[in-house]
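ok, trying the design again with the full structure, not the truncated one.
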């Protein structure tokens, strides 16, 4: 089936896909997805609120954590309308401008998350390897610059993608395999050569996620060298313990990404639902698990959240009295 193409892109549409063959169960399938989205929104907003309102958490490590929470929140909200729209209203049709806008935000925020994880590894490197200069190196102004540079780098690299896709005519099937728009999937529907999109996509991944992952690995190699030079076993354990939450966040981001890449490249024989589930794992598991990991493993965050809940509970008792 050919996509209804017009010189006015407003009239061209794609069709999103939920769980094929399980359309009658979309109402039930939406329940766990609603729970995941609500948990992501509540968890990340809680992290941001606690860091914003508690002056004792106004330190570089927590500023970067707030950036990660905001990025995860944005990534979650980028997919929420179309995913729940399909499950609740069978709203499969999406215009090309809306599709390209969603694509831009999903890919930009994914790259921002990679950059924020790199910034957090730099924070851990400075804190452990150069603790005396920690506050002078990671000043608030420098942290703001790091955050803005991460956002600008990601946005500028992803910005050409919608324009590269806009030049195509889509004469193949206009049905997408997911409940949201992704560059790799849309470009495969084009009639003409997609070599430019392929090359540029690989370039973007290499100079963002590729470089970030190498620098994260390097920072932890230097951290490990410094920690092993510490004489006290207790001090070594304490230093490494400050990195556990960040290591978990890195693994939660990169393992699903690698898994999804392997499934797309080598898993053509696998059932479609495997591809679908891996894409949801990649987009939803990191935003879901990061607040949980940091709430459990970071003592200061855990204590502040507990205090907030105790305060709310005491207010409710006071109002009852």
């Amino acid at each position: 089936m050919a996509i209804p193409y017009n010189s006015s892109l407003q009239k061209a549409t794609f069709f999103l896909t939920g769980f094929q063959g399980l359309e009658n169960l979309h109402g039930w399938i939406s329940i766990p997805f609603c729970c995941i989205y609500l948990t992501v929104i509540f968890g990340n907003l809680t992290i941001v609120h606690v860091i914003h309102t508690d002056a004792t958490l106004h330190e570089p490590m927590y500023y970067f954590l707030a950036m990660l929470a905001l990025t995860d929140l944005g990534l979650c909200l980028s997919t929420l309308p179309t995913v729940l729209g399909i499950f609740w209203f069978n709203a499969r049709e999406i215009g090309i401008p809306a599709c390209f806008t969603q694509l831009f935000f999903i890919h930009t925020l994914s790259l921002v998350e990679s950059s924020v994880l790199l910034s957090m590894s730099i924070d851990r490197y400075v804190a452990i390897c150069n603790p005396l200069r920690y506050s002078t190196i990671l000043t608030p102004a420098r942290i703001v610059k790091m955050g803005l540079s991460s956002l600008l780098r990601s946005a500028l690299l992803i910005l050409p993608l919608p324009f590269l896709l806009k030049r195509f005519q889509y004469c193949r099937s206009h049905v997408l395999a997911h409940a949201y728009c992704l560059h790799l999937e849309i470009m495969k529907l084009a009639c003409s050569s997609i070599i430019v999109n392929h090359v540029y996509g690989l370039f973007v991944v290499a100079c963002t996620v590729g470089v970030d992952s190498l620098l994260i690995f390097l920072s932890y190699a230097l951290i490990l060298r410094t920690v092993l030079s510490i004489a006290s076993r207790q001090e070594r354990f304490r230093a490494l313990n400050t990195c556990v939450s960040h290591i978990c966040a890195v693994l939660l981001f990169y393992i699903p990404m690698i898994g999804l890449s392997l499934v797309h490249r080598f898993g053509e024989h696998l059932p479609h639902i495997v591809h679908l589930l891996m894409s949801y794992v990649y987009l939803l598991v990191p935003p879901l698990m990061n607040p949980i990991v940091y709430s459990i493993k970071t003592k200061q965050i855990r204590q502040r959240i507990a205090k907030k809940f105790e305060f709310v509970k005491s207010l409710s008792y006071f109002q009852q009295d």
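Keeping the full-length input from now on. The longest helix spans residues 96-129.
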